[in-house]
Structure formats: C-alpha cells, structure tokens
Amino acid sequence: MDKEREACEALLHVIDECSKGFEPASGPYQVQIQLLRNIQLATIDGHGIRVEELEQLLAATATTERENLLVAWLTWLNELLVSKKLELLGDIHRLVEYLLLRVEQLRPAELTFLVTLLKVIPGTELRHYWPRVAILKQPMSVETSWLLMLCQDVIFMELDLESDVDTLPLADQLADNLLQPQFEGRWLQSQAEEVPIQLTQTFQLLVKIISLRPDYAEEHASRLMGFILANLQYGSEQRLLPWRVQPAQQSHVHVQGDDEPGSSNNNSKNNQGGRRTKARKMRSLTKQKASQQVDNQVETALTSPRDRLLLQGNLDYGCRTGDSEGFTPSETELAHPEQRQIHHLQAKVRVAALQLLSALAKQLPRRQLYGYWHAIFPSDTERRDNLLAMGQLDGNPRCRAMALQVAAQLLYGSKMYLNQASAKGPSNYTPFAVSLASAVMCAYRNLSTILQREYVPPVLTQCLKCLAVLVQATPFEQLEMGFVYEFVPYVKKLAKHNDTPVAVSALLVMEMLVATPKLTQEMACAVGLATTRPLPTEQPYESELKEFCDSDEEEEIEASEEDRLGEQMKTLEQPVPVPPIPRNSWLLRQVLRYLETSSTTPPLRLECLQVIMAMATHFALLQLHLIRLSRVIASCLQDPSQDVRLYAARCLDTLGYQMARYCQDQQSSEQEQHLAFWLRLLPFIYAAYMNEASASLKCSLCDALANMGSNSFDRLPRPQRNGLLAFLSGCSSDDAEEHLVRSAALRALAVYVLHPSLRSDLVFIENAAESTLRLTDNTQLAVRIKAAWALGNISDALLVASVQTERISDDLLGRLIVAATKACSDHDKVRANAVRSLGNLLQLLPPQAEREGALIKLLDCVRNAGSAKVKWNACYALGNLVKNRALFTTPSSCVQMSNLLFPTLSQLIVQHGNFKVRINATAVLLQVEQRSDFGSHYTEVWRSLLAATERSNALDSYEEYNHRDALQQQLCLAMAHLLNMARSDDLPACRSALVDHLDVVTSTWRRVAYRIIAEQAAPLFTCSSLLTKRMHSNPLTSLSGEQRSALDYISDALRLES
C-alpha cells in the first residue's frame, strides 16, 4: 500500500513538473492526468483498464523524451499489478509484443514492467515467447542484465523441454549467453549495487538449465567449474576472472556407476539364512519433519532419501542467507545496516555458486567429475578457492555449512576413486596415487581445523557429517599413520556436546571409523579396540594416545554411575559383578553412558545403538561387557520411541550374529556368558513382541532370535528352549499376524532345524515344513523368498534325519516337492533356494517313484534361468542328485536320466558366460560314478570338456579372470575322471576330439597339474599310466589297432613327469 501510494505521488509530481509552461486545460499532459484519475477509479471500482490505452500511453510518453515521466508511469503501474489492484482488459500480449519489439533499447523500468506482465500471463501462453527471449544477449548494464534474466527465467520455468525438442538448443544458447560476459570480465570491476544480485540470478538460472540439460553440463563442465570456483570467495577479496578448469587425465578409473562399493557376496551360509557381514552405508538417524523447508536445488543433488537426510540434515542453514537466530551479527554490521545488507547479498552469491556446484555434481558422470577433483579438493592447504577452505574461512555460518554439505555430497560414493590413493611412491616424480593421497590428507587437516575452531552448532554438524563420509571412503591402510590422531580427539569432545545433532554426528564419525573393514593400528588405538597385528613397544604418538583415555574426573563419574546402577539392579535381579571398561575404550564408555541415562534424546539413542552394531564386528571388545549390553538393550526394547525399540532389536540381531561366530572356538566359560545374555533378554523380547503393533520390529526380533547360535540354543534349559520354539511356532502359524512377520519367524525355525539338538527331531522338522507350505504361495515376494530359503534348510535337515531316523510321510514329501517345483518358476531370488531344496527332496524319493517332472523343472532352471546364482544352486543340486544310485538302478531310469541331464550340462559347460556356473556344472560330472551312467552321451560330454578348455582362455569379461584358473582345474579333473571310466570303444572318438584341441588341452593340463597342490594333482599325474594299465590288463577284451593307436595318442598327450 505504501509503495503504491508513493509511486502515485511521485508520478503526479513528475507530471506537474512536465506540465509547466502549458495551459492547465489544454496541455498535452492533461490527458495523462485524466488517465491517471481513470486508473484510480478503476482500482476502486474494480472495472479495470483497457490494454490499448496503456499501449498508447507508453508510446506517447516514449516520444516526449521525458525519461523520468516514463519511469514514473511504469513504476506506478507495476505496483498496481503486483498488488493486484489493477485488472488489464483486452489482449495483454499486445502490450508484451510492444515491449519485446524494442527490448534491446528497454530501460530498467520497462523491463521491470515486462517481468510483471509475464507473471500475469498464464504459463502455457508464455512458451511462444521463448525463441525470441532465449537468444537475447546480455546488455552492458548490470541492472538491465539482471532484469532481462528475470524475464528469461519466468518463461523458462514454463517450458516442457522433454516434449519440445526444438527448445533444447535454445536453452544451451541461453547458458552460453550467461557465461560469456562473465568470462569476458564485463562487470568484473563494476561497483554497482546490482552486481551481486545479477550474479546470484545468473547462478540460479544456470542451475535450472543444467538440471534439465545434463548434456550441456557434461560438454561445458570446465567452464561451469571455473565460474563456480571464481566466485566461492565473492566479497572476501578482489574478484577473480573465471577460467576453464582442465580435468586431470590420470583420474580415469573404473567406477561401477554411482553405487557405494562393497559388492554383495553370493556365497551365503545356509545355517545363518544367507546372513553376511556388510559394510554399512550412510543412513539417516532421524526422520525429517514434513514441515521442514528444503532447498529444491540442493535436495535434487542426492537420489536416496536416506542419504539426503544424512548429508543435508540442516538445509535451512544453506539455502537461505543472512543472520537469524543463533547467528549474532557483528558490531560493525549493527552500526552500519547498509554494510550488513552488502554482506547479505555477497553471501547469496556464494550460496548460489554452491547450489550450481551441487547441481553440476549430480549431472556429471562420476568418471568425469573425478577429473576436477584436484580443483575441488586440492592438496595445497594454502589454496582458498575450494569447498573445505570455504567451510573453514567463510565469514557467514550459512555459507560454511552449505560448503561442507556440498563437500559431503561430492565425497559420497567416492570410495572406488579414493582407493587409488597411496602414500608410497617413487622419489624421482610424484605419481597420481601420491597426489590423491595428499589431497585426502589435506581434506582431513581442513576438517580437523574446522572442528577445532568452529563454535556454531549447524556448521559443526555439517563438518562432522562430511568427515563421516570421508572416513567411509578412505583407504586407511594405504596412507601414512598419524592423521587419525588429529581428528579423533576433537570428535571425542564433540560427542559430549550439549547440542544433540552435534553429538549424533560425532558418534556417526566414530561409527564409520569402527566399521572400517581393515582397522589400522592407530584406528584401533583411537577407539580402544584390539588390533590384528601386535602393537610396537614404542608408541610415536604417546601424547595423542593420552587424549583417547578418559580423565580422572570421567573415571569418577563412571564409578558413581556404576554404583547407582548397581543399587537399582539389586532390587531387580541377583547382583552380578560388572567388569570395568578400560580407560582407552572411551567410545564404548560414552555410548553406554548415553544409553543408561534416561534423559538421552531418541536420536542420540539411535546413533549409540548404531555404534554398538559397528563395534560388534570386533566382538572381543564387547565380550566382557555383555551384562551392561543386555541391560541397555532391554531398556531400549521398552523405550517409548518406536524407532529406538526397532534399532534395539536390530542391534540385538547384529550382536547375536557376531556372538555366534565368536563363540565357535571359545571356552565354555565364555559360552556360559553368552547363554546368560540370551536368558536375560528372552523375557524382554517376548514382551516387546506382544506389546508392539509394528511389523518391522516384530521381524527384527524374530531375526535376532534366529541368530542365537547353536551353542547358546543347545545350552538353553529345556523349559526355555521349548518356550522359544513354541513362541516362534505360534508366530509363524498365526493367521491374524502379518505375513512378513510369519515369514521372519519361519526363517528362525528354519535356522534351528540345522542345530545339532534338533536336526534329528523329525516331528519338529515336519511341523516346520507344514508352516513353510502355508507361505510358499503368498502374494508377497519377500515372504516367498524366506519361505523358499526355509524350504531349502528343511530339505537339508530331512536328508540328515533320513539317515538317522525314520523317513517323513510320503504325503508330506510329495507336497514339499510340488511346492519346490512350483517355486522353480518364480522370481530368481525364490528359485535360487527352490532348486536347492528340490535337489535334496528328490534324493528322498524311493527308487520306483516318478521324478521326471521335477527333474525337468530343475534342468529348466539350469538352461533358462536369468540369474547366475540360480544356475549355481541348480548345478549343486544336480551334483547331489547324481550321487543317488537309485536314479541309475534300472536301464530305463538310467536312459531317462542321461538323456535329460548330460546334453544340458554339455551346453552349459561350453557356452555359459559366467565361469562360476561352468565350474559348478563341471563339478556335476565328477559325481557320476560309473561309465554306464553316461550312456550314449559319453563322447558328447568329452567333446564339451575339450571345447570348454579352449574357450576358458577367451575372457568375455575382465571380472571372470579371477575364476579362470579354478575353471581350468575343474575341467582337467573332469577329463581325468572320464578317462578313468572310459571303455576301449570310447578311445577312437576321444582321440578324434582331442586332435582338434591338442595344443590348448596339453598346455592347460600341464599348467594346472604343476600349479595346484599335490593331493589335488594326483589324478592328472596318474591318469595316463592308469588308463594304459587298465586297457592292457583286461583279459576279456583285446584292443584293435585303431583303439591301440588312440590309447597311445591320448596317453602321450596327457603324460606328465612327476
């Protein structure tokens, strides 16, 4: 209201000044006064004004050479349109066309009015202006350039670049027009107040362009990177002219997409349900509130919501600038508000540059992005045009937080790249690996300096998160010792910070450090863990090591808390002595202290549980503190927060798994401690399950029980064991329970069937099988996967039970085979276990039973399955099946088996691209015991082995190189196995096939025989002599000349000198 009134009064004043010297009633400005009054009435009555009148007004005013009059009119009309007091009647496009015809001569007031008009027009009607506006070059005036970019931005946001292909080159041309004046230095020395505003708008428009045009970002990455780096210090010193940043050629590295490294291992242990230790990825600690304001440009820089929450937990500190609560302005800014405004605008430029860097990092492929690593993360700590220097030295806390946030985004997923770093190299030149190691060390020094000097909690939080990402990606064993000692003391202090996000982020750093697969000596000393290598007698960092030990005051606090907890536990249970925690194990002490304090916030509790999960991989550290661990887990299972209860169950799951692994080779006293741990927690597990409505928590509790381990389970008192089995059986059979929970309970039962105390209990196995059959046809894939895995374990147990006790009923066995056969047509993750169970179940059938349909289904999985794991398991099942002599007892069954099996295996051995599949297929042949089992397919199998040997040297994929030697060894052993069963009439065909592959087979045969250990190589060394001896020692047959020639040829080709 005030702006509109002031603009109107200014317009009247200008008209009065211009009308001097004219008659009051007939002057040329009397028309404008009348139009002004008409517009005022239109704003009051709401009738509006016609566009033609405004067009005539602007044309008449422009010819009077009274620039101030035109500016006054446009200013007032603009305020009326912005406040929505004035409605334009007629075709607004006429007014826009009038302004666009002379857009290159337009003054700032006219461009401001054009921007307002464009915002009034519906978005779908703006697109036809795009070709005319996009090609406009930037004017010389800073203010005019800024207003022109506003016009281009309004129209660009309404475009549909994916459907309108013609607009794509125009977007690229617009980006070029934005960058060109900056690289020319057109406004480099300008002191205009609009310069930071114009720069901010340039960055924001470029962000929008490259977000929709990744090809442009890839092509012009060097210019964009130079433009960004030149403005990271905007306002702090003299402006820099943008430059092209040349990518480093040495940074080309094989990067498997943008995924976090740590490929999954397909070789899983059946008795643990496929459980394996995995490197934990970065994950969120708290849920983001729906009302949280998130900056759109930075938010799109990460794809995973969990990663985005972790790396951008405080986006409010980066997407908006200026001072706010928690950020106290300096005395100079309080005394000079205009100086504060200047700093505010300068900070907006730096934030916009960071947003462009974030968007650019999202669009660039990893391989190309790593080419600019030397500019983003230099190895020189004196350089200031980089992210970490900005996070350390920038005067605006929001800019510092934003810089560290973007640095964390760039570091995320860089483990494959940083694995090239190495501190060791030749002295006559600096290789790329050493330069990369220097950059990593420089990053750690910068982050350590920030942790030492920073006091603003949001910046500390972002710095710690950035450090956590860097720790996860660092190859510690390839770098020099000492830098861990630099940042861990600061992290230790911040882990006790009063601000919860800071303390959580500090513990996150330690979690990532402890979870590192290969702990170095300094890493172990920093957290009080046991090292795999003996520590030297002289420590080079004694002063630093003292900082990792708790002080005397902390020891006294720990002792008082132990006394308090001991008094509380006396009333609850029989007192048990609790061993003290070593002084250097400050991390475990701090985590348990947080969990044992009732005032600890839920986010902090969650992270403490995550730290314990990471420390569980070093279970020897936790072994002596199982009593306290059981207390804190029991307490967390009763926590009011659902998230805390869920993470407590997951923590128990991880502890149980590591405890079972650790317990296998330990003394009975330690096994008794593990048993006491579970006996103490079982009532709390039952209570948490009964009181919980969340399916995820119930599943985690069942998974935790599944990881109890055979030692602890078999030592359970009979009442507790029967109660546990009854609890899980009830959970798996409860029709009112969610199917995911039932499948989790079934998985636990399937783990138990292989425990020594239950594997011969046929009644329990049959009950578990019945529960499995109820879930094999479930509509949820996750349920069917667990049911198929359970079926595989049950089939393993049935094989053991069939030897020791009576067989299961034929009806149940038939239903299990039907379920396994049907599962072989399901998803690959279901088939992988279905084929395993089907191979086991077919062995249990009596010799006269019909098994052709199931066998055909098993072979179909070998031939047609898409997943290599399905074929591995199918070949493994066939190998077990071939051991059953009942399949070859009658001539008809032998012919049936050989006609189905061997053609499929012969094709698989030669043609499949996965070497591990070919190894498992070849292993099936080694299980065939008699020559008659091959039937008429003996020669076909021999030819396939020779062809596969020659093809083994042709690597279709570099990833198969590691399996080539194992494949060649298996092929040679299979050839020796077939020759040991050969008849005299087989020799001519074997020779004929060997002639075509003689050189490759003989060289491979010799290389394998002299490479493998003597016990395995024995069949290769004795094959030739045994074949000759067997053929000549048979009195019933005499060799023909062709057969004798073939025998000599084969023996000479495969003869080895011992």
From TrEMBL:
It comes from Drosophila willistoni (Fruit fly). Residues 275-286 have a biased composition (Basic residues). This is HEAT repeat-containing protein 6. Residues 348-523 form the DUF4042 domain. Residues 287-297 have a biased composition (Polar residues). Residues 247-297 are annotated as: Disordered. Pfam families: DUF4042. InterPro entries: ARM-like (IPR011989), ARM-type_fold (IPR016024), DUF4042 (IPR025283), HEAT6 (IPR052107).
